Amino acid sequence: MESVKQLKREVTVPLSKSNSFILLWFTTVVSSLSLSMFMFIQSWYVVESLGMEASLGIVLVCLTTMRMVSMVIGGVVADRSRQTKIMSFSDLSLACLVIILAGLFVLLPEVPIWVLAINATFFGACGGLFEPSRDALIPKVVRENQLTRANSLLQGAIQIALFTGPLLAGILINIFSYSTVLILIGLFLIISGIGVLFIKWTDKHQNKQGKINQQSFKVQLREGFTYTWNSSLLRALFIITIIVNFFISGPLMMGLPIFVEGVLNGSSVDFSFVQGGFTFGMVLGSVLIGVLNIQRKRGAYALYLIGLQGVGMLIFSQVNSIVVAVSIIIFIGMLNPGVNIPLISLVQSYANQEKVGRVMSLIRTGSLGLIPLSYAVTSIFLGMGIKIQTLMAWSSFPLILSVVLLFFLNPILRTAD
After folding, report:
1. I want to staple 286 with a disulfide (CB 3.0 to 4.6 A). Which of 78, 156, 325, 416 is the partner?
2. How far is CA 117 from the centre of its chain?
3. Residue-wise over 34-43: b if at least 16 C-beta within 10 A, else e?
4. Strand, helix or coil at 355?
5. Chain-centre distance for alpha carbon 195
6. DSSP class of residue 55?
7. Architecture, CATH, for domain 14-195
8. Is residue 8 over pLDDT 50?
């Protein structure tokens, strides 16, 4: 009886008093901050010091491509190993890469672009292991009815870190050398890599872990694909993330600077307001989702908000005022975590706990993989002379239509809690 009472006390611990969740939140923020700072430093060095703007895409492609491949592999590894060890390995490996690069900045008068590309490749390969393990760890650290709030706190903090990282790196690079800032980033990653090892939880599936580890890597990877696609709910969630990322990433995110400069006749300051408004909206949306802590009809709720995103994009494409544009982009930004967080929580609630890492990595990789394609398609249409505001308006209709189709064709999605 005493053990039952003790267990009840343990599972009802608020997030604010859960040492494991606080530590997970802290290490996630530090890791995200380090990643955004590194990407800014790398991009700025290529453009400002090397003067090779056209080659920046090569470095970014090396990083993002390997990151996507690594996330798929990381999903399998997360389901067969202890997640905290993988997250620690990821951060500590990144720390080594950053510190090695800092040493090259000290030793060489100019770091060649091919060195940066190779470093970015390894950085993406090691960095992609972190997210699948973190996503698989969250359901083990918090209760099921805390998943939405926990994800909102994590996603909100990540957005703040991704926003403040470039600002902090920009300030530091004006005061210190590249090598000094890179060493600082390396120290951040070391702190995160060591700190994550202190996260504690009770592994309820420890007995099944041995059976999972006996399977080959290829079998587990194929099992993750099959499991995700055979589940009508997970398949619908996979399709949703692909649709949202494809029709929003290119027309809206890539199109923002073009829209501000060409349609609104704005300056770089105006663009910073619009871009900052989107980030502010995402942070605000994450906070609201955390406060509401939605537990019922999360699938239907996400569908409604995707429809609102489509309406928001349609309205945004027609504005001709900076003030109105900022107001609408804040609204669209608020909807983004309103869609993502309930969907992530649904996956973590419904997926088999031994397969959460693989399912989450496949969903994230599927959505991220279409972002470059979305950019390419948008660029092709722009090259054909189609205005960016027209592309935004066109892209809003598939979003709205997809919501209607998924609502009626996937009843499990609109009823899923």
Report:
1. 156
2. 22
3. bbbbbbbbbb
4. coil
5. 21
6. G
7. Up-down Bundle (1.20)
8. no
User: How far is 362 from 73, CA to CA, in rounded Å?
Assistant: 10
Query: Tens digits of per-residue pLDDT, 251-268?
Result: 877 777 778 777 888 776
Burial of 1 (0-12, 13-18, 19+ CB in 10 A): exposed
CATH number of 217-415: 1.20.1250.20
The CA-based angle 134-124-277, given to 5 degrees, is 70
How far from 10 is each of 82, 140, 143, 154, 235, CA to CA, in Å? Answer: 21, 13, 10, 21, 34
- Find tokens 């090691």 and name the residue: 126
Kindly report the average pLDDT of the chain as a whole number: 80
Domain extents in the chain:
14-195, 217-415
Identical fold for domains 14-195 and 217-415, yes or no, is yes
Tell me which residue of 164, 169, 131, 128 sits closest to 39, measured CA to CA.
169
Judging by beta carbons within 10 Å of its beta carbon (0-12, 13-18, 19+), is residue 59 exposed, middle or buried? buried
For residues 384 and 348, what is the distance between their CA atoms, to the nearest angstrom? 43
